[in-house]
């Protein structure tokens, strides 16, 4: 509940240590790496246009031409799954990076300010957190019309407040450290203290936060597509694929299973990485995470 | 006495949070594209008719004024009239809320009990087979989206082995008795979805407590393992889990969206989806307000219970007034 274990000031040491002490991290990163490679090589491996329809070859089982079969419009399921991975990884990476970056900066600044500003920010954060994330997402997506950047914006609105709160908590324990007091005594400017003293020392928390948020964001973006508010058809998106192929589950189970297995392995990888990072960096992950 | 001040402070913050949340949603909803009056009257409406409806709906007035009027109405339980059905929002919302509670409450009870029991068990037997199995399964459950769990359950128990109905065929006018046969599969999905997170928190805090000095002392005193766990470790291990439970309970309200969508269940989540696609502004605002209220009440309850249970929290609160307990709490949605 309280803090984060004693922090080493060596960023390099913190970066290397995890790999020595955690198999979970290694396995998790391996999962993610496989997804990355598949996403990059998708056009080479897939061999079909993910949106090309073929009325003569619908709802087919696995064959030499279509390794995973085809869906109700005759689109190649392997190509759609692989290209869905590109989309999922891109959205997740952008959304997570922006949400975590915004949350981290606001969290550090507000923790350092520790005055009326902090109070105002935290009340706004509380209010934003109290609105169900899916409702906030639906409203943002409806206002701006679905698209890659709108989903990224919506996820930022939903997750930045949560990150802010976590980082602020970690930053407050850093602020009581002697080196921050020393920096203040040296008369350093606030900007310099926030970015050069506080920020580097909450990086372990931020890193765990990143991995954990990413795992939720993958699921959230897929859920949004599944509900029909995310990616527009015929975009190859995992959530959308499940929605489209669910009704034909008994005919072509692979249409639903392929995107789900892809989604689940990516999330397992991210979760394992988050677990491993938390363990080797001494961040209490269970306390950080709650609900989706 | 010293408990009263932080308790009152939390209460004040809770009220402020709900008001702020309602303001944000009100403003965001105003930005939804499309003219409401135009949409209600259809494409063929004359500009005069649209103008008149705008005036009747009060759409031309100042946003802040409308917000205050709406808030005053909401305080009396009057959420306005649905733009789609023309009926008052409050009764529709209450029915949907009741239907959602029908699946959310059992899921909460089963989910919290199950996950606490398994989490503590795994924590006590850290590193052994029980722990490995429980941890792996919870990781898997956490990584599979709800819509998949729901789809698989439908395939198994509605199509493969026709025990439960696959979807609810009744609309929002269904009575509780009519809904009862249909609630089981949604309950299972929600239970699984929320249990994984609580389980992991319970496990990790149990591990922390079991490693602490006072548990070692209890063990060295020669107490039985059973007694050490039940009397010493469990109460302390549950404390950090409280917040996570509160957040998950509050999350259920938003989390029901996907589940209700899959099962076509007439609850809050379905109402939320419908009102967003129909631009039914008063209904969206009412749902947001109700959800924010539930979130805040759950968190407040968790905070107050923690405050009442934990003497450490009380003294820390008093000693350093500039650093309220909230700041050290890292749980969140």
Brief digest:
With 292 residues, chain A is an all-alpha fold. Chain A has helices spanning 11-21, 23-46, 77-113, 116-130, 133-144, 148-175, 178-185, 190-201, 203-226, 238-245, 253-281, 285-288.
Could you list some keywords that capture this structure?
heterodimer; A: 292 residues; mainly alpha; 12 helices; 0% strand; elongated; disordered N terminus; B: 333 residues; 14 helices
Element layout with pairings:
The complex is a heterodimer of chains A (292) and B (333).
Chain A: H1 11-21, H2 23-46, H3 77-113, H4 116-130, H5 133-144, H6 148-175, H7 178-185, H8 190-201, H9 203-226, H10 238-245, H11 253-281, H12 285-288
Helix pairs in contact in A: 1-11, 2-3, 2-11, 3-4, 3-6, 3-8, 3-9, 3-11, 4-6, 5-6, 6-9, 7-8, 9-10, 9-11, 10-11
Chain B: H1 4-30, H2 36-41, H3 47-57, H4 63-75, H5 89-124, H6 129-143, H7 146-160, H8 176-179, H9 184-210, H10 213-220, H11 225-263, H12 268-277, H13 281-309, H14 311-319
Helix pairs in contact in B: 1-13, 5-6, 5-9, 5-11, 5-12, 6-9, 7-9, 7-11, 9-11, 10-11, 11-12, 11-13, 12-13
Q: What does this 3D model show about the protein?
A:
The complex is a heterodimer of chains A (292) and B (333). By secondary structure, chain A is mainly alpha-helical. Chain A has helices spanning 11-21, 23-46, 77-113, 116-130, 133-144, 148-175, 178-185, 190-201, 203-226, 238-245, 253-281, 285-288. In chain A, α2 packs across α3, α3 runs antiparallel to α4 (116-130) and α3 (77-113) packs across α8. Chain A starts with 10 loop residues before the first helix and ends with a helix. Mean pLDDT of chain A is 80; it is low at 1-9. The longest helix of chain B has 39 residues, at 225-263. The two termini of chain B are 31 Å apart. The relative contact order of chain B is 0.14.
């Amino acid at each position: 509940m309280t803090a984060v274990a004693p922090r080493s000031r060596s960023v390099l040491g913190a970066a290397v240590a995890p790999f020595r002490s955690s198999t979970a991290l290694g396995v998790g990163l391996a999962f993610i790496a496989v997804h990355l490679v598949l996403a990059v090589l998708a056009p080479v491996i897939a061999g079909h246009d993910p949106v090309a329809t073929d009325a003569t070859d619908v709802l087919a089982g696995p064959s030499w031409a279509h390794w995973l079969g085809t869906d109700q419009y005759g689109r190649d399921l392997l190509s759609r799954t692989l290209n869905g991975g590109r989309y999922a990884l891109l959205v997740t990476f952008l959304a997570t990076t922006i949400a975590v970056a915004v949350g981290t900066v606001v969290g550090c600044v507000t923790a350092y300010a520790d005055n009326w500003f902090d109070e105002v920010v935290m009340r706004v954060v509380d209010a934003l957190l109290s609105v169900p994330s899916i409702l906030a997402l639906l409203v943002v997506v409806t206002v701006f019309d679905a698209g890659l950047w709108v989903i990224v914006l919506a996820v930022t609105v939903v997750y930045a407040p949560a990150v802010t709160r976590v980082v602020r908590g970690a930053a407050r324990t850093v602020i009581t450290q002697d080196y921050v007091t020393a920096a203040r005594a040296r008369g350093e400017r606030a900007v310099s203290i926030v970015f050069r003293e506080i920020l580097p020392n909450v990086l372990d928390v931020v890193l765990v936060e990143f991995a954990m948020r990413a795992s939720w964001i993958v699921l959230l973006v897929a859920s949004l597509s599944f509900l029909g508010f995310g990616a527009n058809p015929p975009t190859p998106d995992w959530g959308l694929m499940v929605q489209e192929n669910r009704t034909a589950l008994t005919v072509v189970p692979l249409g639903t299973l392929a995107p789900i297995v892809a989604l689940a392995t990516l999330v397992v990888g991210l979760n394992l990485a988050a677990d491993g990072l938390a363990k080797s960096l001494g961040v209490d992950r269970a306390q950080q995470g709650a609900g989706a | 006495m010293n408990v009263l001040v932080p308790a009152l402070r939390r209460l004040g913050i809770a009220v402020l949070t709900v008001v702020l949340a309602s303001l944000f949603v009100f403003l965001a909803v105003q930005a939804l594209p499309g003219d409401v009056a135009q949409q209600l009257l259809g494409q063929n409406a004359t500009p005069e008719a649209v103008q008149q409806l705008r005036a009747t709906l009060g759409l031309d007035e100042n946003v802040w004024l409308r917000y205050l009027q709406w808030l005053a109405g909401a305080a009396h339980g009057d959420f306005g009239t649905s733009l789609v059905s023309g009926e008052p929002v409050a009764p529709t919302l209450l029915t949907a809320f009741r239907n959602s509670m029908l699946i959310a409450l059992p899921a909460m009870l089963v989910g919290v009990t199950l996950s606490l029991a398994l989490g503590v068990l795994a924590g006590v037997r850290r590193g052994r087979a029980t722990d490995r199995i429980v941890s792996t399964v919870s990781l898997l459950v956490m990584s599979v989206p709800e819509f998949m769990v729901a789809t698989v359950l439908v395939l198994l128990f509605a199509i493969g082995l026709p025990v439960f109905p696959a979807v609810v065929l009744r609309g929002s006018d269904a009575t509780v008795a009519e809904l009862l046969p249909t609630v089981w599969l949604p309950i299972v999905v929600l239970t699984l979805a929320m249990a994984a997170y609580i389980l992991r928190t319970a496990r990790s805090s149990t591990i922390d407590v079991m490693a602490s000095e006072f548990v070692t002392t209890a063990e060295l005193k020669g107490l039985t393992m059973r007694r050490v766990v039940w009397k010493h470790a469990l109460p302390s291990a549950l404390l950090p889990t409280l917040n996570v439970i509160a957040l998950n309970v509050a999350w259920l309200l938003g989390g029901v969206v996907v589940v209700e969508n899959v099962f076509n269940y007439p609850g809050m989540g379905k109402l939320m989806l419908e009102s967003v696609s129909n631009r039914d502004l008063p209904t969206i605002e009412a749902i947001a307000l109700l959800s924010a209220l539930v979130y805040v009440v759950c968190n407040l309850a968790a905070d107050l219970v923690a405050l009442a249970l934990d003497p450490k929290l009380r003294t820390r609160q008093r000693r350093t007034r500039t650093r309220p307990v909230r700041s050290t709490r890292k749980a969140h949605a």
